[in-house]
Specification:
7 helices, about 15% helix, Immunoglobulin-like, 6-stranded antiparallel sheet, mainly beta, about 475 residues, 4 domains
């Protein structure tokens, strides 16, 4: 198999967040990828890595400050055998030692990222990408491993789109020696998919293939590019563009959107290829996140006190059942029993309306802040803890996020010798509890972390949880 690798480095300022640079911390690592056409047998896979500059350990040299970080990139085939725990040989693996040089560490703050990019060619298929940073006791660095499912499409068929690369800047260039160079452009990837304060412009890069098959008589087709809120198909006002393009293969699609007016949240960039009848022939989307704390979200219309006039009265049965599954995460025992006893659909709708209305901290405002916060946490859980068998909000870690918020600190213990993988979540102040911890363990080795212990009243408590995690322990 042919394999091509190109690595590049870039210092990038994203979001400026006050914090202490002196404390021991794991490496802050962001990961993203995109696949493109290469030849009849293989596709090009690009891997984007973002290293938090302030999370690295530097040593002074005569010319600058240098951080040295060992790293292993591994690509494995995703197979049924793998899901059942059968090991497989890597399709590709590279052990690297990355050097990061900065002029002065005094100016480093959380939110600055050092970028790397790797390119390789692989046959189309389903893969798992692993990035491993080993522990270093001398530097106080914990071991870190990130895993991502990677789908590498076969681009040899009819008209279609590559993956989308989210970028911080895209500039025209003829400098083929620049390791971020591609098709007459220098593309600086954004591996964290974060935009907002300090970075209000989203740049994107994609490629369209075999568009001649969808072009009109004049040899043109239409590209529709737009930004939409997560889980909403319609474009946001002012964030939609249609362009007529000459059919060529590949057709390089590069553009940008200004996001400084968007409130914080999750969004999608969507690209659609339209034929002469304005019908979609190929689509691609890419999720990203915006942090704009100074931009207020437009208030939604206040709920009517009357059930008949409320949005709940017209909810579909599927929406109702989904909503009831969600609220059971935080429902009281009495409410949970009530949910399980209701059979009438309208009664279920009324229950949902009452459930949220009595938790509204300020009924005089048009927004139910409690419900907004709940679904913000649920979305956060889905984005970070979804596994092959369930959505993130259904997992133990996701439900702790929904009930108690994001932990103050997460202490990973994924490779401690003699122990199953586990995490300790620390909270500084849970109302009514104060400081608290949760312990989650991957006892079966499938990446599904189960809550086994907590100091919070009413949560599962296991006095001997350390013994439970020992490889030699049996129930």
């Amino acid at each position: 198999m042919k394999t091509t690798i190109r690595l590049a480095t870039l210092l990038l300022a994203l979001f400026i967040v006050p914090g202490s640079l002196g404390q021991t911390m794991p490496v802050d690592l962001g990961l993203d990828h995109a696949a493109f056409a290469y030849d009849d047998n293989e596709s090009m896979l690009e891997i984007y890595l973002a290293f938090g500059a302030s999370s690295l350990q530097y040593e002074a040299t005569e010319e600058h400050f240098l951080a040295r970080l060992p790293l292993t990139l591994t690509l494995l085939r995703s197979t049924e055998a793998e899901l059942q725990g059968t090991p497989s040989d890597p399709v590709w693996q590279d052990d690297l030692t990355l050097d990061f040089a900065v002029a002065d560490t005094a100016g480093l703050v959380e939110g600055q990222y050092l970028m790397r990019q790797a390119r390789l060619t692989v046959p189309p298929g389903e893969y798992e990408l692993r990035v491993n940073v080993p522990a270093d006791a001398a530097q106080g660095r914990q071991q870190l491993e990130l895993r991502r499912d990677v789908l590498v499409p076969d681009f040899t068929g009819s008209g279609g789109l590559s993956d989308i690369t989210l970028a911080t800047t895209i500039t025209r260039s003829q400098d083929r020696e620049d390791l971020f160079y591609k098709n007459g452009l220098v593309i600086r990837p954004n591996a964290n998919q974060l935009y907002g304060q300090g970075m209000s412009n989203l740049f994107y890069y994609a490629e369209a293939y075999q568009v001649e098959s969808i072009a009109a008589v004049g040899g043109e087709y239409t590209l529709l590019a737009y930004i939409a809120e997560a889980n909403k198909p319609q474009p946001l006002p002012g964030l939609q563009r249609r362009t007529q393009r000459k059919a060529r293969t590949p057709d390089v699609l590069a553009g940008s959107f200004k996001l400084d007016g968007l409130p914080s949240g999750s969004y999608f960039l969507r690209l659609v290829l339209l034929d002469e009848n304005n019908e979609s022939r190929a689509e691609q989307s890419r999720k990203f996140f915006v942090v704009n704390p100074d931009v207020a979200r437009e208030p939604v219309a206040a709920l009517e006190s009357s059930f008949e006039a409320s949005p709940y009265a017209t909810m579909s049965e599927e929406e109702v059942e989904r909503g009831l599954e969600h609220v059971r995460v935080i429902a009281t025992e009495q409410e949970d029993r009530r949910v399980r006893s209701i059979e009438d659909l309208d009664e279920k709708r009324r229950f949902l309306m009452d459930f949220w209305q009595k938790r509204d901290p300020d009924p005089s405002t048009p927004v139910n802040e409690f419900r907004e916060d709940f679904y913000g946490r649920l979305q956060y859980a889905n984005e970070r803890y979804t596994v092959r068998t369930m959505e993130g909000w259904e997992t133990d870690r996701g439900q702790v996020i929904i009930k108690y918020g994001i932990p103050t600190n997460i202490e990973p213990h994924l490779y401690d010798r003699g122990f199953k993988p586990y995490e300790i979540w620390q909270y500084n102040n849970i109302p009514g509890e104060g400081q608290a911890i949760f312990v989650f363990a991957d006892r079966d080795g499938f990446g599904e972390f189960e809550q086994i212990h907590s100091t919070v009243a009413g949560e599962r408590r296991m006095a001997n949880w350390q013994e439970e995690l020992s490889d030699g322990y049996s129930n």
